[in-house]
Amino acid sequence: MNREIIRQITEKIESYDRIMLFRHIRMDGDCVGATKGLREILRLTYPDKEILIVDGQTSEFLAFVGEDDAPVPDGYYRSALGIVIDVAERSRISNQKYALCRELIKIDHHIETDPYGRINWVEEDRPSACEMVAALYAANREAWKISPLAATYVYLGMVTDTGRFRFGGVNGDTMRLAGMLLDQGVDTETLYAQLYLKDYESLKFRAYVYEHMERTPGGAAYIYVDRDMQREFGLSFEAACNVISYLEGIRECLCWIAFIESDHPEDGIRVRLRSRFMTINDVAERHHGGGHACASGATVYSREEAEQLVREADESVRKYKSQNTGWL
Questions:
Q1: Is 103 exposed, middle or buried (0-12, 13-18, 19+ CB in 10 A)?
Q2: All domains in the chain, ordered by first residue
Q3: Which of 122, 98, 107 is closest to 37 using CA atoms?
């Protein structure tokens, strides 16, 4: 834990009467949990301050956490401290009015590529941004307040970004901070039901995926979800993107990839890449993307480019297997 940066962030928060929180496009549990959790902690601790999240995105998967704050005039930003959480590059901040803020703080756990904040707190080894919010609270717990709701938001992000504490990077600090949140009264049974219960139709889609997924000779599994498939199963784009989780856990497949067509061809084809043991972000970076070593995203603009990405992933798996043992 970088105590000096945490001290600087705390002092900066205390010096402002208005704070705006920002997250990344294509919102997920980590960026939502981190922003909503920090907002609730700060509102409880500093009731005279105005703490806002103005985002505008929607998510079927995360609808149960409630809405963000209503839009505000540009003048609100100009007098505010902006805190951007879980966003490596400023181009991926969902509300681009972040740039109007008087000062910016960046809190992130991705590979550092764009140090855009006045204060940049980046820890690439943290498995979630929510863990960093939990650490921020823990460092200030004698003065700051928390509630079961705030703890639930932060725990939500830790759970989703670590695959229920199974992914690389999870360590003793992760579990101690999660335990601290659980002690606040997180209702895990309800939370897990919201996150992981499946609709009947989605199970049919899962069965379809298992029938139609493919595997390269080297050991990369992949599926292509086109617009016709999404219409056939009544999938939103967000639900279609979750297909990546279906490919996890195939023995000898150290990498798995999902290609998802959007309703707007000019936006390209979204790619989600995951890996076990080996890194995969270098493949994503060659195709308009990036991210974590073992969890990245990219964009391709044709079936041919998708096929090229699969070949590159297959080669990466082959190379890793030839140079390493114990990869199951």
A1: middle
A2: 3-195 (3.90.1640.10), 200-323 (3.10.310.30)
A3: 107
Question: Which residues have a Cβ under 8 Å from the Cβ of 318 and sit 6 or more positions away?
Answer: 218, 219
Q: Give pTM, 2 decimals.
A: 0.85
Residue 101 has pLDDT above 70, yes or no: yes
- CB atoms closer than 10 angstroms to residue 8: 15
- Tokens 């705390």 map to which residue? 10
Give the C-alpha separation, 55 to 120, whole Å: 21
**Percent of the chain whose pLDDT exceeds 90:** 85
Whether the pLDDT of residue 289 is over 80: the answer is yes
CA dist 169 and 173 (Å) reads 10
Q: What angle do CA 76, 17, 62 make, to 5 degrees?
A: 65
Rounded distance, CA 328 to CA 326, Å? Answer: 6
